[in-house]
Amino acid sequence: MQPLRVFSVAPKLPRPLEPLRELAYNFWFSWNPRIEELFAQLDPRLWRETAKNPVLFLNRAPQSLLQSVAADENYLERLKEARASLEQYTTRTTGGVPFPPAESGQPAVAYFSLEYGFSLSMPIYSGGLGILAGDHLKSASDLNTPLVGIGLFYLKGYFRQYLTPDAWQQERYPVNDFEQMPVVLLKDAAGQPLLVDVDLAGQTLYAQIWRAQVGRIALYLMDTNIPQNPEHLRAVTANLYGGGLEMRLWQEILLGIGGIKALRVLGLTPKVIHMNEGHSAFAGLERIRHYMKREGLSLEAALELSASTSIFTTHTPVPAGNDRFPSDLIQRYFEGYARDMGVAFKVFMALGREDPRDDSEHLCMTVLALKLSRFNNGVSRLHGRVSRTMWQRVWPQYPLEDVPIGAITNGVHAPSWVAPDMALLYDRYLGGNWREDPDCTRAWSLADTISDSELWRTHERLRARLVDFVRWKLRKQMESKGVGRRLLELASEVLDPDALTIGFARRFATYKRAGLLLRDKQRLFSLVSNKARPVQFVFAGKAHPADQGGKKLIQELVQFCQQEDCRMRMVFLEDYDMDTAAHMVQGVDVWLNTPRRPLEACGTSGMKALVNGVLNLSTLDGWWDEAYKPDNSVGWAIGQGEEYEDDEYQDFVESQTLYNILENDVIPLFYDRDHSRLPKHWVRRMKASLKELVPLYSAHRMVEDYTRQAYIPACENFDKLRQNNYKAAAELATWRMDIMTRWSGLQIQNIQTDAPAALTVSETVTVTCEVLLNDIKADHLLVEIYSGPLDTDGRFTSRLTFPMQPAGQPVNGWQRFEGQAQPEDAGRFGFTVRILPRHPLLLDPHALGLIKWGA
Ligand SMILES: *Cc1c(COP(=O)(O)O)cnc(C)c1O
């Protein structure tokens, strides 16, 4: 039985405190310590108990307290200032890269994600994907990006973790009380909740819509727990990643199809959608159907329009992490939908199949998204490469490096993750604008002017604060288990505020290899028990509720931490969440990460550590593969990016490397102090990583990359395709169909070059060929010299392409093309010719999957 919410009684805020309510309903407070303090300071304990939820906090605050604050001139003055700064922030018109003009108030981009993590008080995230989405919204807000978010509002959100006395993970699912959260239920003119509906195999699923205001950005969250739905459908938004395959399908139908419909109900007409993970791929379908039904476009034109204005980001390098639905299940839910779009069900299924002819293939949401979007990307350079390999079958004729999946590396929202003390330091040295300056490089270039001792003392204070937090949290954990007095007292003394502190916190997924550190327990033990140069560890993380292996790992780790000689130096904190994450990334000296390459798509917690001057120690996977510098000037790498056949052997080698780095590099460097006890060489690395890495791994940079590379081109494309009642979209569709039918008749012959058998580097060679146009216009073809060095088997090891131009008039349908190539390096060098389709409205010549190779 799902509890249906009842209305709650609003507190009586004394009039002078009314601005607090406004501040409470904008999540801007979650990255503005000055505003957070206005709440926290009233009653710090209540603030913590209410999980930093300002609405709940105001509802629970004793009336007497509110009355007395309402008479505090000083407080009211600060409140007024805070309100004015919110006003100023939300109405400012400057920001990042400007978008093409749109109707006033209309967003350009709708961002879709199944989870969002932007505040401790909104537990509708499970991990990296959600936090990333939250940081994306916050940076979009700071940069004034015209974007809205679409998601689901879960009654139970993600589970809370606690451990039994024998360290076995248990899960609790606290119920969210939406009425007491900083969100607003959207209603129509008659005061009734706005509803969207989607069809679930003949049943109608309704959802109401809540709005969470994240700075300038509106996030719309759909909620099915309403009386219009029968019991089993009310549960669609009960749990984040809960339920079986069919429930997942319902959620994804709601997110994708319901999300597009919700935009319409809200009167929003974004030109572009950004789908994150395959979860939201149905949004692409619904847009196509919308353009067919509402705008009268043909299927082909609607598809061109929708795909040319859709961005898809894949976040998972693990095949099992990509949703796949069997065809009979999809048939039940989408047969009518396909008919409505005018396509046979088999053709519909082919949209989600790597091999469209393989009837046994399930519908893969990632494949569907890839095919319904012309801007596809992974979330780090390495992950881009991995994704091209993983999804190569979607573009079967393509050489791997041309598979149209690019890379935009993730980033973190620095103002959210930086410790307030550090932020003050940055204010002084980088200038007050570092938080919102879209040009991160400019702001952070001043990082090396920060005073060494101030930076270090600030960092030490944060370490001390982490130690306090750990003690408090550990005590609370122990009290709830009813442990004895002696242990409770020890908890208050655990960790040393001056010792080298290493943090490790993440999902306990197998590939993250939390156990790597435990492989040689004796060696770990001697590190931890060293009195002269002590090392201590703080751990946190959840295992998926069904992952027995992950739970076992947690148990092993916790039991190791609990040994008599370790317990003062190794601590596992239960229930990893954004608050614990923030304390950890702000207070440790080293952030440790040990994923098995290449299974970490990007990883972001190391970047959160980065903004606080914390150094990273990690395998070369995800973002660290591109961020690490081999001179160790910004942190350390475990290994050199090797990939192994034998996991067991890899773990052995890499754990040894890890201990070696700790013993030989990290510990000596940390304890190498000058006469004022300052670790000069350590501080130099802190400053180098602030200066070199923070600007690159900032969510501002990420949002600007999406804006420049995808959002704006897609918006411009939308404007072009929409002209003259969508005439251009129809033209592009006709052109595409024509090209598809004519393509196989293209021929290339007579590839020739004037190159001598031996030439020197950088000498130009001329290449010519003849192409049988098969009635395709020459300027609709991109003819290229494809050249590069060859390996000993005569295969290209890398490639450069050079465009060729038509030369002279066609003869009997054969057109001569000519171009120049320039070998870059000495060695064996080869070339061939290839053709791609080209059209002014087609942004990426690779998008259609057509290619013709010279023999
Ligand atoms: C940042 C964060 C994550 C994701 O961390 P990764 O390093 O990307 O795995 C997960 N959970 C919480 C609470 C976080 O703050």
Automatic annotation (TrEMBL):
Domain DUF3417 residues, every copy: 13-121
Which SUPFAM superfamilies would you find in this protein's record?
UDP-Glycosyltransferase/glycogen phosphorylase
Q: Does the keyword Disulfide bond apply?
A: no
Keyword tags: Allosteric enzyme, Pyridoxal phosphate
Question: What would be an example GO MF term here?
Answer: pyridoxal phosphate binding
The reply on keyword Cell inner membrane is: no
Residue positions where N6-(pyridoxal phosphate)lysine is found in the record: K608
Q: Which InterPro entries match?
A: Agluc_phsphrylas, Glyco_trans_35, Glycogen/Maltodextrin_Phosph, Glycogen_phosphorylase_DUF3417
Gene Ontology BP annotations: carbohydrate metabolic process
Give the family, as the similarity comment puts it. Belongs to the glycogen phosphorylase family.
What NCBIfam families does the record tag this protein with?
more_P_ylases
Q: What is this protein called?
A: Putative glycogen phosphorylase
UniProt source species: Megalodesulfovibrio gigas (strain ATCC 19364 / DSM 1382 / NCIMB 9332 / VKM B-1759) (Desulfovibrio gigas)
The uppermost taxa in this organism's lineage are: Bacteria, Pseudomonadati, Thermodesulfobacteriota, Desulfovibrionia, Desulfovibrionales
